[in-house]
Design brief:
The protein is an alpha+beta fold and about 100 residues long. The protein has two helices and two strands; from the N terminus they run αββα. The protein has one domain.
Length: about 100
């Protein structure tokens, strides 16, 4: 079911991008550092949207990677704390 929803969303996004490109056919100048490009407005809008999506995806990936690293540190700390608690409990049983 999730594959179908993913494919349906990709197809609908492609159709929306095609519609935006068709409805905005005016030519615009895009200045990039040392280059000036002349392109239809619809294409510029779609490319800007895709660049924004990719930038957000990269940010989210780094955020998830940080969370996974933190989860690993917390699991190690929990194992150490549990082993100390077991050792303290065993020492208390032997002393009593």
């Amino acid at each position: 079911m999730s594959r179908f929803l993913f494919r349906a969303s990709v197809v609908s996004a492609a159709l929306v991008a095609l519609f935006i490109s068709a409805m905005n056919s005016d030519l615009v100048d895009v200045e990039l550092a040392f280059v000036r490009l002349r392109s239809p407005l619809g294409v510029v809008l779609v490319v800007a949207f895709v660049i924004g999506l990719l930038a957000g995806l990269m940010w989210r990936i780094t955020w998830v990677a940080e969370l996974l690293g933190e989860r690993g540190r917390l699991r190690r700390a929990l194992r150490v704390a549990e082993s100390r608690a077991r050792a303290n409990a065993a020492a208390g049983d032997n002393a009593g």
